[in-house]
Amino acid sequence: MAGSEAAWQAAQMGVEVVIHEMRPTVGTFAHKTGDLAEMVCSNSFRSDDDEQNAVGQLHWEMRAADGLIMQTADQHRLPAGGALAVDRDPFARTVTQTLKSHPRIRVEYGEISHLPEGGQWIFATGPLTSPALGEAIRAETGAAALAFFDAIAPIVYAESIDMDTAWLQSRYDKGETEDERRAYINCPMTRDDYEAFIDALLAADKTEFHEGETAKYFDGCLPIEVMAERGRETLRHGPMKPVGLTNPHKPDQKPYAVVQLRRDNALGTLYNIVGFQTKMKYGAQTDVFRMIPGLHEARFARLGGIHRNTFLNSPTLLDGQMRLRSRPNIRFAGQVTGVEGYVESAAMGLLAGRMAAAELLGREVPAPPQSTAMGAMVTHITGGADAKTFQPMNVNFGLFPPVEGLKGGRRGRKDRYKAYTDRAKSDWRDWLDAFDG
Ligand SMILES: Cc1cc2nc3c(=O)[nH]c(=O)nc-3n(C[C@H](O)[C@H](O)[C@H](O)COP(=O)(O)OP(=O)(O)OC[C@H]3O[C@@H](n4cnc5c(N)ncnc54)[C@H](O)[C@@H]3O)c2cc1C
């Protein structure tokens, strides 16, 4: 996805491009063909609503930027209500043919297993980056900065948390500053709440690993349901331990367990539920997590998951132009940068392709503003996210800077989202106009 879009954008700007694709010679457990831009699982590009949905807004921005992936998806669209579903085989074949017939693009089949010293490169090797290249990247970045599995805890919109029930406090009030002493949102549970929560967790539907995807859990990131299976009290002695915390709403009552949420972005609009990585199905997750006092009305920017997924700690490794700080001739794009999904991956390819081509053409290009869906994503992965807890992210309105003067909460949501997408469209047009000169 990302590599195809990056190649297209750079070639359209007048730059000669070589695409290196290891398939069909070297395969992955998920890809079935040798085509570029193969959709490995669902055939959906998700919502196409560019007024009320952040991924729909991203579609809009990619179309406005002459994106090959969106153009081809539109060409092979299938009926799916408000979603953009795609006829996957003709879609991938058309992308492949379009790129192969471009006068400035050449496709070479073969694995790249090292980070080259010279030339301008974009590595868009995805969640299933080949093992040899993964090792080469790891040698460059250090083991702590490249993950081979994700462990995604659900992320909640801060404004949907009931602060009459929850409260801000770090365990044992630790921290140098007031902000640090109030860094976590705490949700208290009585014994009855806890027992009901454990029952629901154990009974919930779970997803299995894909065929060929090795099931491998690491200490420190076990799914919560696996922890609960090890004993009903395990969570209460782990991520839900109630120690070092005092509920200011009920100072005389000691909670039986506490669920903690930690700030997930610099804007403070998103919080992740600490230690709650899970393989519960999405529907089950919303039901189970809304049982938590303080989260009864929670809205989720993303739900949890655990997948085989090679991704960089981009906030520490990449600069605002998506270049590897230690090797600026190398950019990364797509899912390997810590975005998630076909659309987000292609979007980061679009940006990386344009940025790399601009650099080769000797032009200065600022990153797009955070108020656009593109800018919101690239700002998040290259610095807005907390590097210590960095996990892959979908595009969502929590990544956009708030629009001042609008009503908060559920009632104001429609107007707020419209204001975000109106502002994004205008700012994206301005950025494209400046870019295209
Ligand atoms: C099992 C599975 C299911 C998924 N389901 C969905 C889903 O339903 N919806 C969704 O939106 N996203 C899904 N994803 C995520 C999906 O992979 C990404 O959204 C998207 O494909 C990422 O795009 P990308 O361009 O970053 O990587 P990819 O599309 O994977 O492209 C990377 C390319 O690099 C090639 N490559 C890798 N290493 C090398 C090398 N060393 N040398 C040369 N070429 C190399 C690969 O063959 C591949 O063609 C799924 C991922 C997996 C693994």
Automatic annotation (TrEMBL):
One of its GO terms (cellular component) is cytosol. Keywords: Cytoplasm, FAD, Flavoprotein, Methyltransferase, NAD, NADP, Transferase, tRNA processing. This is Methylenetetrahydrofolate--tRNA-(uracil-5-)-methyltransferase TrmFO. The keyword Transferase applies. It comes from the Bacteria. It is found in: Cytoplasm. Residues 2-363 form the MnmG N-terminal domain. GO terms for molecular function: flavin adenine dinucleotide binding; tRNA (uracil(54)-C5)-methyltransferase activity, 5,10-methylenetetrahydrofolate-dependent. It comes from Salinihabitans flavidus. Catalyzes the folate-dependent formation of 5-methyl-uridine at position 54 (M-5-U54) in all tRNAs. NAD-binding protein involved in the addition of a carboxymethylaminomethyl (cmnm) group at the wobble position (U34) of certain tRNAs, forming tRNA-cmnm(5)s(2)U34.
